[in-house]
Amino acid sequence: MLLDFVSRGQKSGRLVILQTIRGGSGSTMGKEPINVLIAEDDELQLEVLEGYLATHEHIRIAARAQTGDELIAQATLRTDLSAMILDIHLGEGRSGLESYSILKMRGVHLPTILVTGMAPHASVTYDLGIVDIVEKPYTAKRLRQAIEKLQSHIDYQSFVKSGGLYVPIFAEEILQKTPDDILYIESINRTILVHTASDAYESKIPIKVYESYLQDSYFYLTHRSFLVNMKKISHIEGSTIYFHQAREGKQALIAEDKIQEIASFWNNLKKWL
Fold first, then answer.
1. How far is CA 144 from the centre of its chain?
2. Which InterPro entries match (predicted)?
3. Most CB atoms within 10 A, among 81, 105, 137, 170?
């Protein structure tokens, strides 16, 4: 089916992509980095937790907090966080769970793992939307299970946010990304690269097929070699497009005859996002 898609994709790309996603039993999901805020006031426990997390290459410790107030401040002010790992007891003042509740009321919704020596009643954490509870002392295996559960939760939320749509990447293996994962798709000497904020994945699917498939997801062919997710643009300078939270060097181009058209479309889109 995949080879059939590549050969006939120009004519029936949308239909065959959907069939591939639904029928692809061998599909795997590439792991995007998860930026985590850790709230833990015990230095020894923090060292143990960070040691276990170090074995997960896609987990990045982006911030730390030792008190409830620090937790609230970090989670409210930072825009790069993907998730939190909290201890219930955070020194003096608010507990981790109380601070998490305040964040929810303020509209900060970060998937969270609760690490604690005294697990609260299940109904309490269910109502708050805690992804998993890991009781101390715990093993690397138990934390790995929680991380996998967190990853599944993030993948599902991203899938729903993107309108229930997966974008296939077909090369040596089949990957699936949501439109929100992708910054732009680039064609270089007949090689197709699907760019996320931190990686680039080679694909055998033609850029024109991606254009047709993603036409309702704010992707725009800014240049014959670049299909851009307009929602991910941070700014435009001349014919160069820059992206939010992208690794250095992640840039796309605009064809000279499209510069005014693209800039106008993007400026109007910003008003609605």
1. 19
2. CheY-like_superfamily, LytR-like, LytTR_DNA-bd_dom, Sig_transdc_resp-reg_receiver
3. 170
Residue 66 has pLDDT above 80, yes or no: yes
Distance between CA atoms of 86 and 80, rounded to whole angstroms? Answer: 17
Indicate if 44 and 152 belong to the same structural domain: yes
14 and 114 in a single domain? The answer is: no
Between CA 83 and CA 88 the distance in angstroms is: 16
| DSSP output for 203-222 | E-S-HHHHHHHTTTTTEEEE
Distance CA 201, CA 168 (A): 11
Q: What is the Cα–Cα distance from 75 to 100, expressed in whole angstroms?
A: 9
What is the pLDDT, as a whole number, of residue 21? 37
69-83, 166-180, 183-197, 230-244: which range is least confident on average? Answer: 166-180
Number of domains in the chain: 2
Residue 182's nearest CA partner among 222, 248, 229, 227 is 229
Please write the tens of the pLDDT for every residue from 106-119. 999 899 999 887 66
Give the integer Cα–Cα distance in Å for 239 and 259: 6
Mean pLDDT in the chain?
84
DSSP labels, 9-78: HHHHHHHHHHHHHHH-TT-B-PPPPEEEEEE---HHHHHHHHHHHTT-TTEEEEEEESSHHHHHHHHHH-
